[in-house]
Amino acid sequence: MTTYLIRGARPYGGEAADILLEDGRIAAIGRQLPATGAEVVEAGGLVALPGLVDLHTHLREPGREDAETVETGSRAAARGGFTAVHAMANTDPVADTAGVVEQVWRLGQEAGLVDVVPVGAVTVGLKGERLAELGAMADSAARVRVFSDDGHCVADPALMRRALEYVKAFDGVVAQHAEEPRLTVGAQMHEGDRSARLGLTGWPAAAEEAIIARDVLLAGHVGARLHVCHVSTAGSVEILRWAKSRGVQVTAEVTPHHLLLTDACAESYDPVFKVNPPLRTDADVEALRAGLADGTIDAVATDHAPHAVEDKESEWAQARPGMLGLEQALSVVVETMVETGLLDWAGVADRMSVRPAAIGRLQKHGRPLAEGEPANLLLLDPATRASVDPAASASRSRNSPYAGRELPGRVVATFLRGTPTVLDGKATR
Ligand SMILES: [Zn+2]
């Protein structure tokens, strides 16, 4: 196994140091380390961070390999600085059995670019009718700890309560896609002045907030862990803040696109901006950034949702919701949180690596950059600004909402257990 000496990187944006990677671990961090036998990676001026962990990735395999595969999605993840991603369960077949989660887990191992951590469905076929084999998935080789019907809300409160109670047995967490379905029938975009003017059916903030309010009460009542996917409204942040102040075991994530984009994007009628939950208002964006900064929102999660061209390049009403996110997630966080002074680099590491790893109960990720720790890390050039070109994406899909937008920060290298998955900005395999 090749030994790497990273020369002159700035761990967490601090003082320059050399980082020696040996046998999958960080063997040493210090000034002027000898390069004896090691391959040298010149990293002057680059920020070193722990490898990012995504709680919310759609890899589309099995079932929609025309949109993404475990391998292509893993490559996009590595290029974005990720070393672990949670693969959502809404595949075809649905990841609701030990067999399917083990298949996804194995495909991730074979690709070898990031650790692919399968999410198990909460209910059979994501139908919201009866619980899936949660225990069997937890005991499988994939060791599932995060369960979600993402794409669908577990709308039945009794079923949600039973899921929360069940996952306590193996320290699991239910990740809820908070959307009261009766309030979003036919919804196309955020419900407000713009939806009225554009003549598109609205998705009211209350449909998200009502489910979060219900679920934090349930989680508090049964003493279970709840995670809220892609929080998108100011009201949701307030409910989470209240629940945390009461000691409820609730965590939450926000997507890069909800930190940057607003419902003004819908004015273009370009379906690349159609997403669920929808892009919200300036006031919501401001509240989400503040909530992420003060820790009310624990993590940034991409909700990377690749779609084949025919599913996305159609009229707004027919287009599937969802957008790419893995490759630009860190850049968007740099723009919205670092350059605005809301988070420092340690804060970025916390929200994009440490806390998501803790929520997913991943032992080997989200670890500090320190001697003896697993060598999962990335090197970022924070100063470079470049225009996003979807054609250059490692994803099989092209539905990037950032096409043509200039964003700061370039991931120069990613290391998974001491082996580079990205070098000079390019995937190594
Ligand atoms: Zn969702």
What does it look like?
- The structure is a single chain.
- With about 425 residues, this protein is an alpha/beta fold.
- It folds into two domains: about 5-45 and about 375-390 and about 405-425, Urease, subunit C, domain 1, CATH 2.30.40; about 50-360, Alpha-Beta Barrel (TIM Barrel).
- The chain is about 30% helix and about 20% strand.
- It contains twelve helices and 19 strands.
- The strands form four sheets. Strands 1, 2, 3, 4, 5, 16, 17, 18 and 19 form a nine-stranded mixed sheet that branches. Strands 9-10-13-14-15 form a five-stranded parallel sheet.
- Helix 4 (about 155-165) links the parallel strand 9 and strand 10.
- Helix 1 packs across helix 2 (about 100-110).
- The longest helix is centred in the middle third of the chain and has 18 residues, at about 205-220.
- It starts with a strand and ends with a strand.
- The mean pLDDT is about 95.
- Zinc ion binds near residues 150, 151, 177, 229 and 230.
- Zinc ion binds near residues 150, 151, 177 and 229.
